[in-house]
Design a protein that fits this description.
71% helix
Length: 184
């Protein structure tokens, strides 16, 4: 059993995909439980709303289920899922903005879940960089993607990824909130 009370499966994502292709529905459940938190957190970065992020989570796995049978992984499953999560999240975000005139303010506000003062400062500092820079920064340091993987995910040259990352780090280094947090 894993931390969430689910049976764990030692098979790789590739082996689970093959099992789903072969008609094993429990393999899809293992993929879902293995990647659901990552998908929800990634979606939250785009939509800044937990309920909308959960909608994106659901839509992402409906999209993934629609790829079976016949899905062949040519990269990591997260590399495959990233564009789907991003596109679904941006779509959900646009729909939500049309429904709520004050959504822009809510998106930029600090999430209610951020209760510690340091969390508030980090969210505020990240709000000071562009969406493109924040996306590259989080993909690199939170999700652990390599620069060439990020370039592939975002469909931009590696040089653009490097530039966005450099500019984000430069901006954060100059921000007094990050200096205070990290004692620079």
């Amino acid at each position: 059993m894993d931390a969430g009370g689910q049976q764990s499966d030692d098979r790789s994502d590739e082996e689970l995909v093959e099992a789903v292709n072969g008609g094993d529905p429990s393999a899809f459940d293992f993929l879902y439980h293995r990647h659901r938190d990552w998908v929800a957190n990634l979606a939250f970065r785009f939509v800044r709303d937990r309920d909308l992020a959960l909608d994106v989570l659901q839509e992402t796995f409906v999209y993934l289920a629609g790829k079976f049978p016949g899905l062949t992984l040519t990269a990591k499953l997260r590399t495959f899922l990233y564009p789907a999560v991003r596109n679904l999240a941006l779509s959900v975000k646009k729909k939500s903005e049309r429904l709520q005139t004050d959504q822009e303010e809510a998106i930029r506000s600090v999430p209610a879940q951020a209760s510690a003062a340091a969390d508030v400062e980090i969210f505020a500092a990240l709000g000071g960089i562009s969406d493109e820079q924040r996306e590259v920064l989080l993909l690199r340091f939170i999700d652990g993607f390599q620069l060439n993987e990020i370039a592939g995910l975002l469909e931009v040259p590696v040089g653009t990824v490097k530039s966005r990352l450099h500019n984000a780090l430069t901006t954060l280094r100059k921000d007094p909130r990050t200096k205070k947090l990290f004692g620079q």
